[in-house]
Each structure stands twice: as structure tokens, then as C-alpha cells.
# Entry
Amino acid sequence: MADARADPRDAAAAPALSLRRAYRLVLAYDGTGFHGWQIQPDAVTVQGTLLAAAQRLFGGDVRVIGASRTDAGVHALRQTVALAADSDHPAATVQAALNAHLPREIRVVAAADAPVGFDARRTARGKRYLYLIDNGTVVSPLLLRWAWHVPGRLDLGAMRTALAALHGTHDCSAFCAAPGREVEPTCRLRALHVRRRKAIVAVSLSADRFLHHMVRNIVGSALEVGRGARPPGWLAEVLASRDRTQAGPTAPAHGLTLVRVLY
Amino acid sequence: MADARADPRDAAAAPALSLRRAYRLVLAYDGTGFHGWQIQPDAVTVQGTLLAAAQRLFGGDVRVIGASRTDAGVHALRQTVALAADSDHPAATVQAALNAHLPREIRVVAAADAPVGFDARRTARGKRYLYLIDNGTVVSPLLLRWAWHVPGRLDLGAMRTALAALHGTHDCSAFCAAPGREVEPTCRLRALHVRRRKAIVAVSLSADRFLHHMVRNIVGSALEVGRGARPPGWLAEVLASRDRTQAGPTAPAHGLTLVRVLY
# Structure
């Protein structure tokens, strides 16, 4: 979930110039059974699973880079991925073949040719996330995978007022899990919406970029306001503090879905 | 999913007159991991899991009867259940204690006192079911548990025309899995709706009662019309035939959700 412009961890995933074809894939996944996007030794991850499927298809050297490094348990409706390989296959064939190799929890929902060297992360202009809250008195079994169960009265008006203060360009260190690690803490938040449909409260957030755990920290803090534990003006104070210890708890990963990546 | 007015299989589940308190429970469940509602030896069922939780709570003799015997894999938003036990607990305590003993895939969403001898099945005036179809070109990983993936063009207008012919009171043997087993094949269908929201097509059906596999057989047949394999008038012909071999394939269980039981 963190953007990074010069993150040394990306070196292994960087597109090799020798790979002569690039594709832009759009992936949907149920993150429940995965240890997040980023490839790790001894853990099942979305990137690792996609890489294994692509290696079965293309044989040799393959690179896959996702626009968002979603955390363990986070879902995606439209994650954009750059796939580089030595390939003669048209994009539609790559899509069908990858879907044949992937578990059903990961689907390539679209595939297109991309310029060689296409970087899904660094060229992204923004991302949109959705956070679902199950506000029912009793947790809904049908929402267990997709929503955080928060029973009790929630003041959505107060949450909207609180979130409106985050609109615009700010140093968002207060909502970043490990601020020191980030090269650049400035983010431009474009849209912050809170809607209710029956027991489900949906918080959607768009920004040019997000820091590590940023959506989950903003949602956890906004809920402190919604529950009445903090006044609506508190979120602006937290933001201004640039201090992670001032913010509310991190909302759990399973309520979060990457909706789309904007280019 | 079948109603039955004098089904000998119910004998074991019938409320014993010696049990001096009855509750009306409303259950929600994710049916994915259960072999349906009805208790079976050597299989995990919703009724069996609820009974075990109630026996832990009340100790002695307990009876649980659900209004709908949902098939393996079918979900419920509001299944009504009669619970009879020797109990001094208020309904709210029973709800909280059962939820503490049940897996999160089953939740008691409401509980109230009921007259002793309350029979959730025989007193039901009707039921409403929802069948979800994932009409996306590629299956959505986020709908795997809840929707049947049917790609390709679907003519919803033709499906609506076809389903309208089922409105009213009919012998529904043509849509019954095992017609000979049913005491009474007449059902009064009240509402049949087909809606689309993006790639999701939702078919909702209400009736005073449903025969075994009836919703799934109606949906499977309506999809034959939606795909253009059959004309809209075909569903009326199938109904009039009273012959199960005339109908379309049975839609899979996991797309089906019991929405509520009407009293």
C-alpha cells in the first residue's frame, strides 16, 4: 500500500531491459488467503503466485510489478500490474493462459499491450481505496471477509466533517505506519466519502499516493470520531501533528479493497 | 429448501411438549462450509452446529427447527428458527450465549420469546430467496462464494417475460428435484424480479412455499432464456408440462441466499 519512488526493495522486481515485451494487466483478488501483494520467501503472496503462473507460461525470465503493494488480507478490484517477458503471445492469450494457471482467488480481468519498460507503480497518478464497515449489532457472516465489524452508533456526519479536513495536499506522516522509512510524506487527497447502505458503512478515499497503512490509519481515526470518542476537529489536529502516535488505531486489513489505480 | 407438511424426517426435530420454553431465532449464515441446514450424521450442518451450541448452553433436551432446509452451500440472511428448551434465560441472553458458542459463519441476528410449541416451518406464510449471477467476462474473486459465474450476453428482458408466466398459483412439479416425494406440488409465486447492477444480475423470488431445488431450477431455466437458447415463452411450457425433465439445468447452490421467512 505504500508508494515509493526509489525503494531498494524494488530492485529484484524492476523490469529488465532485455525483456522484449510488456503487458498491462488488471488483477482482481480476494486477499484473505494471501500474505499481501509483495513476494516473500516462505509465504503465499499475490505477486509470488502471479510470478509463478507467468513463469509457467513464459518459461524464462519474467518480471511483475504491481501499482499497489497491498497488505496481507487486503483485496483488489482493479490492481494494475506490469508484466515483462520474452513473449510472442497477444495480450488476450496471456490473460486466458494466466487465468488457467492462477487460483480462482486471483483473476486477470483485463490485459493489454504496454510500452516496453512500462512501470505500473511509478507512472500511476493515483489510487482509490474502499473501506467497508459492518455496523450491524451482530456481525454479518456474509461480510466476514470484506468488512470490519464495528457495532454501535456511528455519527457519519461527524466522520464526514473530520475527513473533509484531510482534503488537499499535506504531510501525512501522522497516518503512516513507519514514517521514517518513507522518502516523501506528502500526499494529495482528492476524495473522501462516507456512505451508509443499511448496516454497511463505506469509506472511499482517493489520493495521488498513499503511505504505508495510511488508509487503515485514517479509517481507524475517523471511527474514533464516528463513535464520539473524539470531536470532528480532532482529525485535523492529528494531521497537523505529523506524529503517528497521535492517530487512532489501525483498522484491520480485511475491510480494505483497492478499487482502482489511476493513470 | 423444501416445505413439507407431514415429513416423517421431522419427527426427531419436532418440539417435545415437555420443553417449557420456546424462542424465535433469526439466523444469518455463510453456507459455504456447511452440508446444508438439515442435521446429518458425519457432516457439518447448520442445524447440527446450532443444536450443539444450544446443548452446551441448556444442557439437556433441546429442539431446533428451521423454516427452510437450505441445501449444502446455500446462504441465509434471515433464516427463522424455532428453539425449544428447558430454560430460564431471557431471549437476549440466549442470543449472546449462542453467538459465543457458534462459529462466526453462523450468527443469531435476533432472538425473541415465542409461544411454547412454536413451529417455524409450518407457520411460515412464505419465503424470499435471492439468486446472484456474476455476469462478468472473467469471474470475480470477490463473488466466488456468493454468485454463479455466467459470462456472455444475457437478455434480462426475455428473462423477465419468461418469469412473469410463473406468477400466481401453479403445480410446480416441473421445477421440483424429486416431485414424487412432495406431498403437495402447488406453490403461489408472488414476486419474480431480475435486476442488474454492473456485472451482477440478481434474481429474487417470493412464494408461499418452495419445492426441493425449485429456486435453482427456475433460475437455471430462466438463464436458458437469457442466453437465447430458449424463447421467453418456454418457461410457461415447462411449467405446464409438470415434468422435471423439461426444465433447464439446476443452478449451483452457492449463488442462492435465503433472504427472509414471512409470517
User: Anything to note?
Assistant: Chain A touches chain B at residues 28-30, 75, 77, 95, 99, 104-109, 136-142, 144, 146, 257 (CB under 8 Å). Strands of chain A lie at 21-29, 62-66, 75-85, 106-114, 126-134, 148-149, 168-171, 186-197, 200-207, 256-262.
